[in-house]
Design a protein that fits this description.
The chain has about 400 residues and is of the alpha/beta class. The protein contains 14 helices and 14 strands.
């Protein structure tokens, strides 16, 4: 018996979950926030307890040191040798990585090189890997890529209609993201429907602060909404999603605060989406509260959000030539029942009949009536478990 830790490191955060393997028992989980800033916060949850510390954490190495000390101090483990593997979520694997891989120096260098494709994620993930390798050098470190699940797309799907040499010379193409989540919920959907995944056509909708939708044909990703970077697709919490690219030079020319394309990309990544339109928040709960108060900006932000998700779902019915089920997952997809209702009301032509008694907060499983031609499932995602399983597979 051994313990594996799944790590999801961002530029200023480190989310983790410790498993007893192969039983897949969660022993503890936690989140370290505001790394590199004052008043960093470390939260550890275990055995129905929660420990919270506020302290200054300068970098990811120090964050990992604190995490490991807490595991000993709180009695979750007795010795660091109990941890035999660490799995790290990496957003961008580019064309280098088509599956999870044991991290060596070459793999780590490639992960850092690919930071241009996920500047908000890959650098932090690389820092997390380095920290674990320094402090626990004898464990198996595995990189699990968000993009790997989408490497099954056809070239006519992942290529952009721009001069082909931009792909051949610079690897400009659609890569997608959230692959571990889409893979997991598709597998769980097949179990729930008691049918082989290899026979199903599914549309999986990962709707959180980031939003991505995937067309899954017989267990493989054939199209997905995120693109060259995670900026593409439907509207998100702070990301714009798809826009006309001609907007970028237009804004540089007309807005004196925007000096170059990097400035505009910063706006599109961090100041757009629900936050940009509402002017208030990127959190759907705040948007819903604004709607209750009849705030016009909140209503507009919500309506755009619903519209963009609905359109992507419609696209993927066409891509798959019909679907057996739509699967909602992630924070908003799992919890915002009114959003599911409003999105699905625009898809009744496909034979979707939602049961309002099931489409409520906290209900998981099939939320449609028996006569519905397309099932709609609400399934909580578990990316950390996918990561832990890949660590175990590659340790063998």
């Amino acid at each position: 018996m051994s313990k594996t830790i799944a790590i999801n490191a961002g530029s200023s955060s480190l989310k983790w979950q410790l498993y007893q393997m192969p039983e897949e028992e969660v022993l503890a989980k936690g989140l370290i926030e505001r790394i590199g800033l004052k008043d960093s916060i470390s939260t550890v949850k275990f055995d129905d307890q929660s420990e919270v510390q506020t302290l200054d954490i300068h970098d990811h190495t120090q964050a990992v040191e604190i995490l490991l000390k807490d595991l000993i101090h709180l009695g979750i483990i007795k010795d660091f040798n109990e941890i035999t593997g660490a799995g790290h979520r990496i957003v961008a694997g580019g064309e280098y990585f088509k599956e999870s891989t044991v991290v060596d120096d070459d793999a780590l260098a490639k992960i850092e090189e690919l930071s241009a494709l996920a500047p908000l994620h890959n650098p932090g993930a690389a820092a997390g890997i380095r920290a674990f390798k320094k402090l626990l050098p004898n464990i198996t470190s595995v990189a699990v890529f968000d993009t790997a699940f989408h490497t099954t797309m056809n070239d006519y799907t992942y290529l952009y209609p721009i001069p082909l040499h931009y792909y051949e010379d610079y690897k400009v193409r659609k890569y997608g993201a959230h692959g571990t989540s889409h893979q997991y919920v598709a597998q769980e959907a097949a179990k729930y429907m008691n049918r082989p995944l290899e026979e199903l056509k599914l549309i999986t909708a990962h709707i959180g602060n980031g939003v991505s939708i995937t067309a899954n044909y017989h267990g493989k990703s054939v199209d997905t909404s995120m693109g060259f970077t995670p900026l593409a697709g439907p509207m998100m919490g702070t990301r714009s999603g798809d826009i006309d690219p001609a907007i970028i030079p237009y804004l540089i020319k007309n807005d004196p605060e925007l000096k170059d394309a990097a400035d505009v990309i910063e706006v599109l990544n961090k100041k757009s989406g629900l936050l940009g339109v509402s002017g208030a928040s990127s959190d759907m709960r705040d948007i819903e509260a604004g709607i209750q108060k009849q705030d016009k900006a909140s209503v507009l932000a919500y309506n755009i959000y619903v519209d963009r998700i609905k359109k992507y779902l419609g696209q993927y019915f066409a891509v798959l030539n019909g679907a057996d089920a739509i699967v909602f997952t992630a924070g908003v997809g799992e919890n915002a029942w009114s959003l599911r209702r409003d999105v699905l009301e625009g898809l009744t032509w496909f034979g979707i009949t939602v049961d309002p008694e099931k489409n409520v907060f906290g209900y998981y499983g099939d939320i449609t009536k028996p006569e519905s031609k397309v099932k709609v499932l609400v399934i909580p995602t578990d990316e950390e478990l996918v990561i832990a399983r890949d660590v175990e597979r590659l340790k063998a």
